[in-house]
Amino acid sequence: MKVSKFGGTSLADANQIRKVLAIVQSDPERQFVVVSAPGKRNPQDRKITDLLYEWQRHQALRLSSDEIRQIVEARYAEIIRDLGIKFDLETELEEIGRRILEGASSDYAASRGEYLSGKIIAAALGYKFVDPATCISFDKQGRYEKSDNRLRPVLQGRKVVIPGFYGSMPDGSIKTFSRGGSDITGAIVAEAMGAKVYENWTDVSGLLMADPRVVDGPRKIEIVTYRELRELSYMGANVFHEEAIFPVQEAGIATNIRNTNDPSDVGTYIVAERNVEKSGNLITGVAGRKNFTVITVEKKMNQEVGFVRRILTVLETNSISFEHMPSGIDTLSIIIDDRQIDGKLEKILSEIRESCSPDTIEVYPHMAMIAIVGQAMAHTPGVAAKVFAALAKEGINIRMINQGSSEISIIIGIENDDYENAVRAIYGAFVR
Q1: Cα–Cα distance, 209 to 287 (Å, whole number)
Q2: Which residues of the chain fall below pLDDT 50?
Q3: Which residues of 150-170 are buried (b: 16+ CB within 10 A; e: fewer)?
Q4: Which of 182, 319, 359, 398 has a CA between 20 and 30 Å from the CA of residue 266?
Q5: d(Cα 190, Cα 29) in Å, to the nearest integer?
Q6: Structural domains in the chain plus CATH codes
């Protein structure tokens, strides 16, 4: 049994939806279908979710929302007409409009995109429609609350279409996951039902070993572990919602990233463990991000109890999280995303000086971080040397290096301006 989740680009119009129907009907194991709201049909188009947010926002400000409603209605009406199915769209939109008029939350409004998609796809497939508000729960603080005892009985023994992205609060009101949350719903359903595989259908044929905007024609990753994916996702290699990893990872269920527009491509499998000897690649992928700031503090730290704690307390009181914290005998570097530190740098430096009395503080802005990830690296000598040689050949200076105890990733810090050349150099050193 498989759980198949389809993203917004897979459901953007009737032509795309026909591809989805064919995919589901081609395999009887695809018993549970999780759907997003219709996405963009072209770069100039608007997502249904964005329109629904705007509908609710206009109503809350007592502005006319008639034009927005008409756009939403036209999109769904076109899909229903082109699919040739019977569906009472007018009644559904009247109910949605009434609830928004009465002050329904933005979460309720946004969730209606998935809700209507689910009803339409269920009608087209002849599957049962299940509203996740009846079986996916959030606690009073708005955190997802695992509720297999509610979910499994509703889904058991049926072929089901269930909208992604939302569930319900204890009082019955609608609560959404963060953007891209349909991925999470799919993972929750896969875990609850003990699926053989969780298929995540999107508009790409799996994960790539590097960003195609930086590296020309990077290879596809055929198989990757959840641990490797976590490292790559953290550094910016995003294909689906990061939180969707955990339910299926804990249950030992493989995730298969597939392309709705090319269903013959097997895509990328994400698994708990893999045989690194059969992969043929020493590294699994290269990913990175720009715009970090490094704060380097120098002092004889081993002679002063609580020094690091006081620095971290400064960050905590300023609501700043850090990315990495490499250290030497008398130096400590803190790497912080510029979005975290924006407008707070001078205050942080002042508070570190006051609470820690360091010998010196140096600030290095405009830094980029690159992660080289691969399970095979842990048992292979010379990986770091190969990275350094590739960068030295391109005249790129390494400002920082950090390797975790798991040894499945090496993270380097370089200047922003060297980022693209560095990624290409590292990729070229390992992939021929």
Answers
A1: 8
A2: none
A3: ebeebbeeebbbbbbbbbbbe
A4: 182
A5: 13
A6: 2-203 (3.40.1160.10), 285-430 (3.30.2130.10)
